[in-house]
Amino acid sequence: MFNLILFGPPGSGKGTQSEKLIDKYGLMHLSTGNLLREEIVNQTKLGLEAKRFMDNGQLVPDSVVIGMIRSAIEHNPASKGFLFDGFPRTVAQAEALDELLAEKQAEINAFLALEVSREELIGRLLNRGKTSGRSDDVNEDIISARIQEYENKTAPVAGYYEQFDKGVRVKGEGDIDQIFDSLCREIDAKMLV
Ligand code: B4P
User: Fold this and answer.
1) Phi, psi dihedral angles at 65 (to 5 degrees)
2) Which residues have CB under 6 Å of ligand 1?
3) From the candidates 20, 37, 70, 134, which is the catalytic residue?
4) How many angstroms does the Cα of residue 12 sit away from the middle of ligand 1?
5) Catalytic residue at 128?
6) Which terminus of the chain, N or C, has less C-beta within 10 A?
7) Is the pTM here over 0.90, yes or no?
């Protein structure tokens, strides 16, 4: 099993690059953002609870997203590996993921962090908000709140993986295909280990 985390602030290109990476490596894509939006569309109890946080640019409680990821992993026992996109977003989520994978005699093999400036992130998200229908992308105050949540609660997750020598930082600005090539180089190197 090869398990990869694609990490970065909101709008850094995680969703964009994940689509390309799952095609190339045949990994199963697990995006907590997409899973939560599905719950909202289906108007489930979980979705209604999550919406209150997402609409304000806040992280959804750890217990909710950890439960969703546990269930997704358990429903896909034959997967050759997972690409985690937007998860873990707190150190508690990272510790829970390690425990879930250890139960399957598996681990995180690579942690790739996309680095993008704050100005570029805001520009990308406002631009996506014109067409995405995502309420959290249209208002600059909510976008700023999401970036603040990232800085306070999510950025420390990089240090968690770096202590195990698993973290690699990749420039996330510029041409989408060139960023993809940089990510692939890092993944190929980790696959040889
Ligand atoms: P997510 O769905 O993960 O949203 P995101 O961080 O905005 O997406 P992403 O980073 O993938 O966007 P992308 O760059 O691809 O989370 C939404 C919300 O869900 C969170 O705020 C939180 O409330 C909740 N949530 C999710 N996971 C959670 C968790 N684990 N714990 C708690 N809460 C959680 O795309 C951005 C735009 O940039 C696109 O328009 C794209 O076309 C463009 N773009 C991409 N690469 C580009 C490039 N190189 N150049 C120019 N534009 C580019």
Assistant:
1) -75, -35
2) 10-16, 32-33, 36, 53-54, 59-60, 65, 86-87, 89, 93, 124, 128, 136, 146, 176, 179
3) 134
4) 7
5) yes
6) C
7) yes
Protein residue with its CA nearest to atom 22 in ligand 1: 59
Give the span between the Cα atoms of 7 and 3, in whole angstroms.
13
All structural domains of the chain: 4-27+79-191 (3.40.50.300)
pLDDT (tens digit, 0 to 9) for every residue of the chain, 193 residues total?
A: 999 999 999 999 999 999 999 999 999 999 999 999 999 999 999 999 999 999 999 999 999 999 999 999 999 988 999 999 999 999 999 999 999 999 999 999 999 999 999 999 999 999 999 998 888 999 999 999 999 999 999 999 999 999 999 999 999 999 999 999 999 999 999 998 7
Q: What residues are paired with 115 via a beta bridge?
A: 171
DSSP 125-166: HHHHHHHH--GGGT-HHHHHHHHHHIIIIITHHHHHHHTTT-
Q: Cα angle vertex 79, ends 74, 85, to 5°?
A: 80
